[in-house]
Amino acid sequence: MRDLGAGFGYLVKGQRWVGRHGRWFGIGLLPGLITLVLYTGALVGLAYGADDLVSWATPFAADWSSPWQGLFRGFLTALLWVFGLFLAVITFTAVTLLVGQPFYESLSEAVDHAEGGEVPRSGLPLWRELWISARDSLRIVIRVALYGVLLFALGFVPVVGQTVVPVLGFCVTGFFLAEELTAVALQRRRVEFRERLALLRGRRLLTLGFGVPLALAFLVPFVAVLLMPGAVAGATLLVRDLAQDREEEAEEPGHRAPDQPPYAAPDPHAHPRAGQDPYTTRRQVPPAAPYRTGKDEARS
């Protein structure tokens, strides 16, 4: 349970960091404000056009008598708007990170620089980083949507659906929210998507302690905008410790890197190279010639 508190501590440290560096707080607000304006316009447009969209999609209800037609289409209109709001909540962070990729990458580098040590850089061009970020964000959204459908179905189970399922929903949202935020710093360290997931699963409570409070706070869009710069800074601080643990684990005796192939015995039928034993991995070095003195040469 200590990791839960430590995860929340990284979130607090990140907010304090941007509070002490007001310039980066202002820079980090810009992408969130842009995304908030776009999402607000989309939701307002959906609210005004949802009636027409539902009427177009349900021509079979045109001849229904009152009040059934109004109740049916009104329910579908509300459901459509709620679904749009749900999509906005689960995709807000991904879109904000995509819009603000250069800003947040610079913010993450500034945190690494201020904390000392090496400042990793991916070395990739901007278009390549945007492509990777968009691709990985789509993977996250698909996973969240699948979990959302499953949890929505479980929500109809009596008692469990009203108690356990909401908690699980926030845990799932918090985990993937933490993955999206830590991706900024991990992508600079050239850590791929699947390896990032494995790294965070290895410290699941730490990840949830960081992500779940953010998931609760991000239910209010304007609060999400204000917390986003500090969330990126806190995620970078969290990644620094995770990367250090990863390096220490890699240095342990007998540890094999994930991308390092296991030992494979050489093919005994393969023609060996000169000076190499086909049944071992060590090159056989021929013995050195004995040292000969001048007297030995004279005798010969």
Structure described in brief:
The chain has 300 residues and is mainly alpha-helical. 73% of the residues lie in helices and 0% in strands.
Please give the structural blueprint.
Elements: H1 2-20, H2 22-57, H3 68-99, H4 101-115, H5 126-154, H6 160-188, H7 193-202, H8 204-217, H9 221-250, H10 294-299
Structure description:
With 300 residues, the chain is mainly alpha-helical. Helices cover 73% and strands 0% of the residues. The chain is built from ten helices and no strands. The longest helix has 36 residues, at 22-57. The radius of gyration is 29 Å and the shape is globular. The model is unreliable at 257-291 and 293-300 (pLDDT under 50).
Key words describing this protein structure:
mainly alpha, 300 residues, globular, 0% strand
Structural class: mainly alpha
Helix percentage = over 70%
Could you say which overall geometry the principal axes of the C-alpha atoms support? globular
Oligomeric state as shown: single chain
Please indicate the percent range of residues in DSSP E strands (runs of 2 or more).
under 5%
Whole-number average pLDDT? 78
**Main beta sheet, described?**
none
